[in-house]
């Protein structure tokens, strides 16, 4: 393992920043304290700072020794989740109902460490843009930054992202060409019938019966309509109906998520949800209305940029610690929207198996979106070293115009 030596020496400093962010989590577009801390640190290291992209986003501009037009973007996310933390260690969340349960505090810290190094070692040609994005957790902060001119104001050849991955050994990385994360989409089905006294069900058109049958039937879209070689997930996550034990309600609601790697498969699933909802509901003399929200497309890693990232990783930790054909996840990531604007690559850095957690952690596993999660601070020098080597190596290679 070939860590960048000065970064290793900043371990305690950057870990303290990470834990401070963890203790003060902020939800989507509310990352005022976090973005202020990021901006202040960048400015203290002599980095040009631009605030307000995507409401609370921050971009740092690190110019190299030469006035080259070459440029690369490195992105981290900053927002927390609306969850109650179960950990009780010193840096646990101080704000009830808010928690850094996905490691965005660690992503921010790793990129800050890299920015500090690059600001002090500007021997590269061109510019490194460090992008601190708000609102990744379902609120499309990447799109907000793009709409505010991210790639116009800060023209870059390619953009790169990184996410910690619990269950993968610390010191290892995962990446693949093509989709590494699925599209993220949500649906709401409103079933309308006719309410009645529960003791006289024959006078009703029961939307609960329609909803329960539909919840079962929707799974056949995955098992009978979809090509089994094309991954897809349809999960019903909420069912809402009724307000009293002796009343059959007028309406019932089903909510859930659909994840795919293929646009054609997503089109098929959306179409079949609508068709099936209408026909199953009609069988119970009810009507159905579908609202389908396509949030994020698949996170698609471009071949050339992925090959370059893989080589940087192999040089950093050895080929045996890089899975260059990792199994993709059906989770979603709005970095996908940046990859639709510029070529790039998104990688996973192993967060370990939870052994790093200090006394006071919750009883649950150290998995993403779990109330007992905590980022592994030992990753900070490793992730930051990847960022540094990636940026320096990218700007040192011959320019290829892909316009």
TrEMBL record:
It comes from Pollutimonas bauzanensis. The keyword Metal-binding applies. Mn(2+) binds at residues 102, 104, 137, 163, 369. InterPro entries: Amidohydrolase, Bact_exopeptidase_dim_dom, Peptidase_M20, Peptidase_M20_dimer. Residues 186-280 form the Peptidase M20 dimerisation domain. One of its GO terms (molecular function) is metal ion binding. The keyword Manganese applies. Keywords: Hydrolase, Manganese, Metal-binding. It comes from the Bacteria. Its cofactor is Mn(2+). This is Hippurate hydrolase. GO terms for biological process: diaminopimelate biosynthetic process. The Mn(2+) ion enhances activity.
């Amino acid at each position: 393992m070939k860590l960048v030596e000065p970064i290793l020496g900043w371990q305690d400093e950057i870990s303290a920043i990470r834990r401070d962010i963890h203790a003060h989590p902020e939800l989507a577009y509310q990352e005022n304290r976090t973005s202020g801390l990021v901006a202040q640190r960048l400015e203290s290291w002599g980095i040009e700072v631009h605030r307000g992209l995507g409401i609370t986003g921050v971009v740092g501009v690190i110019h190299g020794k030469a006035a080259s037009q070459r440029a690369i973007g490195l992105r981290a996310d900053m927002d927390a989740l609306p969850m109650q933390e179960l950990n009780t260690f010193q840096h646990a969340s101080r704000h009830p109902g808010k928690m850094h349960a996905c490691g965005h505090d660690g992503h921010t810290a790793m990129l800050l460490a890299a920015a500090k190094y690059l600001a002090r070692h500007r021997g590269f040609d061109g510019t490194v843009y460090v992008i601190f994005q708000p609102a990744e957790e379902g609120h499309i902060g990447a799109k907000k930054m793009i709409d505010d001119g991210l790639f116009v104001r800060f023209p870059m050849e390619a953009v790169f992202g990184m996410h910690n991955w619990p269950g993968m050994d610390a010191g290892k990385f995962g990446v693949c060409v093509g989709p590494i994360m699925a599209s993220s989409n949500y649906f709401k089905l409103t079933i309308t019938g006719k309410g009645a006294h529960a003791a006289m069900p024959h006078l009703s058109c029961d939307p609960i019966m329609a909803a329960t049958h539909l919840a079962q039937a929707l799974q056949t879209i995955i098992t009978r309509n979809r090509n089994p070689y094309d991954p897809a997930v349809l999960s019903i996550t909420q069912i809402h109906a009724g307000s009293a034990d002796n009343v059959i309600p007028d309406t019932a609601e089903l909510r859930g998520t659909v994840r795919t790697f293929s646009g054609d498969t997503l089109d098929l699933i959306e179409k079949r949800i609508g068709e099936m909802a209408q026909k199953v509901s009609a069988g119970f003399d009810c009507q159905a209305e579908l609202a389908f929200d396509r949030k994020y497309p698949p996170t698609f890693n471009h071949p050339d940029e992925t090959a370059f990232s893989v080589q940087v990783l192999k040089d950093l930790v050895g080929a045996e610690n890089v899975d260059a054909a990792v199994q993709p996840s059906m989770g979603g990531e709005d970095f996908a929207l940046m990859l639709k604007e510029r070529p790039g690559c998104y990688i996973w850095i192993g967060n370990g198996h939870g052994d790093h957690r200090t006394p006071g952690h919750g009883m649950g596993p150290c998995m993403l979106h779990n109330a007992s999660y905590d980022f592994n601070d030992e990753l900070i020098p490793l992730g930051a070293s990847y960022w540094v080597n990636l940026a320096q190596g990218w700007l040192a290679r011959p320019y290829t115009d892909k316009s």
